[in-house]
């Protein structure tokens, strides 16, 4: 499975941005897709996830400002609203062939990753 992110760029604080992730075809009906980011000096963290039942899950730090969605099995989105400078990071999409777990989104559970797209928020 191949994943490719797009839509990153520079935005001012308070602005919005939409990230996309194109996913190559796969034969499984059950899946969990997620967005992660890695602020320099920190561990990669899960931002949001959505599974094949369309159940969503968000990190507390982004609830109410970031919104995850998908188009079938081929495209994953992350809408970033009212962004803050601390959101600056490369953002990665990933997929696992199981339903998403509840709570913090575990990095090791995801075997397939995109190369990332950079989001830079200026104050």
Structure, described:
The chain has 123 residues and is an all-beta fold. It is built from no helices and 11 strands. It has strands at residues 3-6, 9-12, 17-23, 32-37, 45-51, 56-58, 66-71, 75-80, 89-96, 112-113, 117-122. Strands 2, 4, 5, 6, 9, 10 and 11 form a 7-stranded mixed beta sheet that branches. A 4-stranded antiparallel beta sheet has the order 1-3-8-7, with no helix packed on it. The protein is globular, with a radius of gyration of 13 Å. The termini are far apart.
Beta content: over 45%
Give the overall silhouette.
Answer: globular
Largest sheet: 7 strands, mixed
* Radius of gyration, whole Å: 13 Å
Mean pLDDT: 96
Task: Give helix and strand order, one letter per element, not per position.
Answer: EEEEEEEEEEE
Total of helices: 0
Helix content: under 10%
Write down how many β-strands occur, each being a DSSP E stretch of 2 or more residues. 11
Spans where pLDDT lies below 50 across 5 or more residues: none
Secondary structure category: mainly beta
CA-CA gap between termini: 37 Å
Question: Key terms for this structure?
Answer:
123 residues; mainly beta; seven-stranded mixed β-sheet; four-stranded antiparallel β-sheet; 0% helix; globular
Fold blueprint:
Blueprint (H helix, E strand, L loop, with lengths): L2 E4 L2 E4 L4 E7 L8 E6 L7 E7 L4 E3 L7 E6 L3 E6 L8 E8 L15 E2 L3 E6 L1
State the gist of this model.
The protein has 123 residues and is mainly β. It contains no helices and 11 strands. The strands form 2 sheets. Strands 2, 4, 5, 6, 9, 10 and 11 form a 7-stranded mixed β-sheet that branches. Strands 1-3-8-7 form a 4-stranded antiparallel β-sheet, with no helix packed on it.
């Amino acid at each position: 499975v191949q994943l490719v992110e797009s839509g990153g760029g520079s935005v001012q604080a308070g602005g919005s941005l939409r990230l996309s992730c194109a996913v190559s075809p796969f034969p499984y009906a059950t899946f969990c897709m997620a967005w992660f980011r890695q602020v320099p000096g920190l561990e990669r963290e899960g931002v949001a996830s959505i599974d094949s039942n369309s159940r969503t899950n968000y990190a507390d730090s982004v609830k109410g400002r970031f919104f995850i969605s998908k188009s079938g099995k081929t495209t994953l989105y992350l809408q970033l609203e009212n962004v803050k400078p601390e959101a600056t990071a490369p953002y990665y999409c990933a997929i696992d062939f199981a339903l998403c777990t509840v709570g913090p989104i575990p990095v090791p559970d995801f075997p397939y990753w995109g190369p990332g797209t950079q989001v830079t928020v200026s104050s």
